[in-house]
Amino acid sequence: MGISAHVICIGNEIMLGHINNTNAQYASKNLASIGIRTSEHLSIQDDPDTIISSIRNSLRAADIVILSGGLGPTVDDITLDCIGKSLERKLLYNNKVAEHIKKHFKKRGLVMPRNNLRQALVPKGAIPILNNIGSAPGLLIPVHGKILVALPGVPFELYEMFKKNVLPYLKKRFHPDKIIKSRVIKITGLPESKVNEKLEDILKLSGNVEMGIYPHPEEITVKITVTDKNKNKVNAIIKKIEKKIRLRLKDYIFGYDDESLEEVVGRLLTKKKKTLSVAESCTGGLLSDRITGVSGSSNYFQMAAITYSNASKNKFLAIPVEIINKHGAVSGQVASLMAKNIRLLAKTDIGIGISGIAGPRGGTKKKPIGLVYISMSAKKKTICRKFLFLGQRDIIKRKASQAALNLLRKELCSALS
Amino acid sequence: MGISAHVICIGNEIMLGHINNTNAQYASKNLASIGIRTSEHLSIQDDPDTIISSIRNSLRAADIVILSGGLGPTVDDITLDCIGKSLERKLLYNNKVAEHIKKHFKKRGLVMPRNNLRQALVPKGAIPILNNIGSAPGLLIPVHGKILVALPGVPFELYEMFKKNVLPYLKKRFHPDKIIKSRVIKITGLPESKVNEKLEDILKLSGNVEMGIYPHPEEITVKITVTDKNKNKVNAIIKKIEKKIRLRLKDYIFGYDDESLEEVVGRLLTKKKKTLSVAESCTGGLLSDRITGVSGSSNYFQMAAITYSNASKNKFLAIPVEIINKHGAVSGQVASLMAKNIRLLAKTDIGIGISGIAGPRGGTKKKPIGLVYISMSAKKKTICRKFLFLGQRDIIKRKASQAALNLLRKELCSALS
Description:
The structure is a homodimer of 417-residue chains. With 417 residues, chain A is an alpha/beta fold. Chain A has 3 domains: 4-174, 3-Layer(aba) Sandwich (Molybdenum Cofactor Biosythetic Enzyme, Chain A); 179-256, Alpha-Beta Plaits (2-Layer Sandwich); 261-413, Alpha-Beta Complex (Maf protein), CATH 3.90.950.20. Helix content of chain A is 41%, strand content 25%. Chain A has a 6-stranded mixed β-sheet, sandwiched between helices. Chain A has a 5-stranded mixed β-sheet with strand order 14-13-15-16-17, sandwiched between helices. In chain A, strands 10-11-9-12 form a 4-stranded antiparallel β-sheet, covered by helices on one side. In chain A, strand 13 (276-280), helix 11 and strand 14 (301-307) form a beta-alpha-beta unit. The longest helix of chain A is centred in the last third of the chain and has 21 residues, at 393-413. Chains A and B meet through helix 1, helix 2, strand 2, strand 10 and helix 11 of A and helix 1, helix 2, strand 2, strand 10 and helix 11 of B.
C-alpha cells in the first residue's frame, strides 16, 4: 500500500470557480517525487463543521493530510480554529512566529494590523514553518503517528514551504519505501490519433507501470510512471519503455520532462554556434517571445521584425510590392523572402519567416483561416512549408510558433550549414 | 440553502499531479452562473470501491453530482460500471449512441476499435448526451429527485456538453430561485497591500455579499459576488459596491470581467483612430504578442522591431552608437529613442519603446535585474518612465508588457494627440 496522502483545499473562491486550484496538483506532484501517493483531493467551503469533519475523516483514511487556505488574518480565516477543534488541542501564542510576523511588516515599512497576531497562534505540539513571502506561518502537526500539514492558500507561499520544509520533513518522518518515478516524453508534429496508434500496446501497460497521454494544441506528452521499491528496477523499466517509444516516434520526439521546445532549440543553436533572426506576421511576436523566454537567448537571438502590415513588410524587409500583390502577403514566396531578408539584414546564420491567417477574420475560400507558411533560410538552404492549423486565433498562433521552432530544431539536428 | 452540487473528478493522472484539474473550476463557475452553488470538489483514483462510495456519499449530500473522467473505451475506464453499481441499475446498449460513435470514426476515416462500443452502454433511465468532439457520450441520470451527471474527462469535450446540454437541463429541472452574480474589477499599477488598504472595509463585507481579492504578478482582481432571490437587488448591490471601489481606485482600474488590458487598449486605439508601433528589447516580443492577440488588431498595429542586440538597435532603429555607449542600452535615453524612431519609421501615431534587464543574468549594482525603461512617443509628446520590477525573467517580462500597455491606456484616456 505505501504511505498515502489527502489534500484538502479550503475556500469559497474555489467553490465559486473563481480560481483554479493549483495547490492540490503541486502537492501531489511533489509528494509523488518522494514516493508518496495522493489518494484524494478535496475542496470545501469556509464552513467550520465541514472543515472539522473533513480533517477528521482524512486523518482516519490517510497518513498525511495537507490543508491549504484559510490561514489569513481576517475573521473569514477559520482553518486554525478548526484544526484546534478537530484535534481537540489548544491554540498557543508562539513568540517566535509573532516576532517573524512583526518583522515581515517592518521590513516592508508597513504598520502591522492587530489582526495579524492571530496568525501567531499555533496548535499544541505543532511545528511552525516561518513564511518568507507572506505573513501566515505553515504548520507541521504530528497526530498519533500521522501528520497534518497546514499551509497558506497563496500558491507561491505554499510552493516555497512545501519544497523547503514539508517534503524534507515528510521524507525523514516516513522513509517512504517506494519510488514513484515519472518520465515525460514530448512529441510534436504528429496528431494524437497517430501517436495513439503507434504506441497502442505500450499505452496499455499496467501493473507497476502507469502510462498517460496528454494532448495539448501544440504538442503531445506521454508520461511513464513506475512505482517500485527498487530504484534500479524503476530506472530499468523506464529506460526500456522510453527506448521502445523512441524507436517508434523517432524525431517527432523533441524533448523530455520539463524541457520546452524553445529551450531545446536554444541548446542546439548554442552548440552549433548559430545566430538567429525572425520575421513574424500572423504570430505577432509570439515566436520571439518564446525564444527570448529562454535565459541566455541574447547569445544567439539578434532581432525580430514583426511586420504586421503589408507596408511594413515592404519597408523593413524590402519585400517588393509586386510580389505581395501577385502572391498575396500569405504565400510561400513572401514567407521565404521574409526569412531570407531578415537573415541578411540582421546578419545572422539563420532567418525564420512566418506569414499566415490567424483569424477569426481575414479567411477566404482559397486562403482559409489557419493557413500559415513558415520558411527557414540559411546560407546554403532555404525551405518553406505550408500548414493548415485548426483552432481559434490564440491556438493558431501557438501551433504556428511551435511548427517554426520544430522546423528549426530538425534542421539544426541534421547538418545545417 | 438553495440547490447544491458536488463535482467528482476521477483519474490517477490527477492524483499523481500530472494534470491540472480545470474541469471542477469550469463546472462550479458555470453552475454559479445559473444560481447553483458547489459545496465540494472531490478528486479520486481509478478505484471501483472509492468511486462507488463517493457517488453514493455525494448523492446523499448534494442535489446535483457532476462526475468527470473514466468514460473512455479502455479497461481502465470504469466509471460507467461504477455508476451502474452505485445506483444498482443495469447498463443497457443504446443504439442511438452506438450509431453516433460509429459515425464519429467514419467521419475521420478511422476504423472503430471494437472496444469503443462499450461507450454505448447507458445506465437504465439515463439520458445520453452525444459527443461532437470525441467518442464518449455524457449522461444525465435522474436519481430520486436528484441528478447525477457523467461527463468525459477531456476538458474541451466536457466544456461543450456542459454549456450545451447540462446547464439548460439543470436550469429547467431545478428552477434555481437564487441568483449568484459576480463582477470582476481589474486593477493595475498599484501593489496589493495598497489595494487592500484602500478597500479594507469593502473587502470585509459579508452576508449575501462575498468579496475576494486575487493578486497576479501584473494585475489584481477584486471580485464582488452577490447571492439573492431578487435580480434587481443583486444588480443594485453590485452597482453600489462597484461605484465605491471606482471612487477609491480611480484610473488604477483598467477593466471589468473578462476584459484584458490589451483589449481595453485596442478599443481605445480604435475609438481614437490611432495607429501603433512598438520597439521591444527585454520583453522580447511579448508586448507585440499581447497586442496582436486581440482580433482586429491589424487595424491599429503596424509593426514591431524586437531589437535584442545593440547592433540591431543601431541598425534598425537608427539609435546612435554613441548614445548607447554613453548611457547604456538600458536607459531612458535609449528607450525614448526606440519609441520615437519606431513611430517615425513605421509612420504611426504612437510608438512604444522598452529597454530593460529581464535577468537572471546581466544585472549590475547600478542597473539591477528588473530595471526597465518604458517610453511612449506621440507627435506632440514623449514620456519615459523608469520601473524596477521584482521576480523571475518571465514575471519581469509580463510586468513590463503590462506597464507599457497601462502607460498607453492612461495616455489614450487623457487627451493624447
